[in-house]
Amino acid sequence: MCAKPLIVNGRVLARYFVLWLGLAALVGILSGSASAIFLVSLDWATHFRETHLWLISLLPLAGFGIGYVYHHYGANSYKGNNLLLDELYQSQSPIPLRMTPLVLFGTIITHLFGGSAGREGTAVQMGASLADQMTKWFSLDSENRKLILICGVAGGFAAVFATPLAGAIFSLEWMLNRKFQWKSIFPAFWTALVADWTCEVVWGVGHMQYAIPEVPMYSLQNLAWVVPAGIAFGLSARLFAETGHRVADLFKHVGYPPLRPVLGGILIAAFVYFSGSTTYIGLGIPRIVEAFETPLPWYDWLVKTGLTGLTIGSGFKGGEVTPLFFTGATLGNALSVWIPLPLALLAGMGFVGVFSGATNTPIACTVMGLELFGYESGIFLGLACFVSFLFSGKGSIYSSQKIEFKYLRRF
User: Fold this and answer.
1) Does position 411 have pLDDT exceeding 50, yes or no?
2) Taking a C-beta distance cutoff of 8 angstroms, is the pair 268, 116 a contact?
3) Is 176 inside any structural domain?
4) Are 242 and 255 within 8 A, CB to CB?
5) Does 3 reside within a domain?
6) pLDDT 10s digits, 103-123
7) Number of domains comprising the chain
């Protein structure tokens, strides 16, 4: 009599692995392929803009086009990543397939004409949108639908940054608020691995490489310097998140939504014109690379925070994570004047630390740091991520993210 439950459980477990071995692989192929197309298109848009700077003057017109399409044809796609969280917490309606082409072309247009945005949000939304179509194709119940959404997020994140372990953990930590369930672990990791392989090996899309060439010894004195740096990263993350939310609230006073990115585009184009610099628009990857190599102006992180908040808050499309990388790396670079740690290490700590505080995902960000920079700097990176997480307040760049517990939640 004791053996029968074991046989039943064994069969259930076998069905579970067979089901998700196939479904997660399919999501990984779809999200990895979509991310590959997106990354290639984004590289083209960035290069074309930099060789045709007059396009920036058309940013307000591009903003109107994005706003008009989303307002009249986007349905609930305008909610972006918050829609994914809403559907995970309380399933209401399928994520529309139109989200994939809308956010893909919306982000490319944003970058082509000079907006300051990232790419993570686009990849995650495409991955989840494509994955959720399987809910209809395979008649998945509500529990399995949550798993398929987690797979979509894991695949999109892993493919766009070439960090499969961080992609899987990010999907679990971000969507489940660190309440990991055993059923979600295998699908998330398997999807992330397949998506990363599809993007990098099948499609041959490469990714930027970063390095921290010098890592000091793990002494109490060196580790103690991570604390004030982590606090600065946490406060910067809080500023980044609140800037985006405040700008979005301010632009809601414009009654006709398509006009919001028009006004945002005018302000961004005016900034580029009067500053004479394109350093802070687009992804800003060249500046991120510089942050690991040479001292930069102390205000870089503040300018990027403001321009990204203006871009996303006014209605342009894209993600916030690469701008968070920019903000963190340049802030770490600026802190090297006061904190006696290697410049590249501080830039790397800021790279993942500000991201950790703004998304409340310290575990995923620590793992991302290990995947990007190597395991030698792991303790410094992990400590920076957790201190930033604790000091970033109870908010998030995602307004729908539920944070049920945080040590300094009243801060």
Assistant:
1) no
2) yes
3) yes
4) no
5) no
6) 999 999 999 999 999 998 999
7) 2
Instruction: Kindly give, in sequence order, each residue whose CB lies less than 8 Å from that of residue 171, ignoring residues fewer than 6 positions away.
Output: 150, 151, 153, 154, 157, 188, 192
Residues near 38 by Cβ (< 8 Å), separated by ≥ 6? 104, 107, 108, 119, 122, 123, 126, 160
Token output for 165: 């372990």
Does 56 lie in the same domain as 184?
A: yes
The last residue of one of the domains, among 202, 232, 257, is: 202
User: Any idea what the CATH number is for the domain that residue 105 is in?
Assistant: 1.10.3080.10
Dump pLDDT digits (tens) for 318-332. Answer: 999 999 999 999 999
Domain that holds residue 40: 9-202
Residue 395 sits at φ, ψ, to 5 deg, of -90, -170
Q: How many CB atoms lie within 10 A of CB 171?
A: 32
pLDDT band, residue 153 (cuts 50/70/90): very high
Neighbour tally for 183: CB within 10 Å = 15
In a domain, 173, yes or no: yes
Q: What share of the chain is helix, strand, coil (3-state, %, to 5)?
A: 75, 0, 25
Same domain, 365 and 227: yes
Backbone CA torsion sign across 142, 148, 154, 160: negative
* H helical segments located in 253-375: 259-275, 285-291, 300-313, 321-335, 343-359, 362-373
Whole-angstrom distance, CA of residue 19 vs CA of residue 7: 18
Averaged pLDDT, 36-49: 97
> Domain for residue 319, yes or no?
yes
Task: Decide: pTM greater than 0.90.
Answer: yes
Q: What is the gyration radius of the CA atoms in the chain, in angstroms? A: 21
Structure tokens at 219: 């002494």
Q: How far apart are CA 330 and CA 165, in angstroms?
A: 25
Could you tell me which residues come within 8 angstroms of residue 21 by beta carbon, excluding any fewer than 6 positions away? 190
Q: Supply the pLDDT for residue 82.
A: 84
Type of residue numbered 121: G
Averaged over 245-270, what is the pLDDT?
97
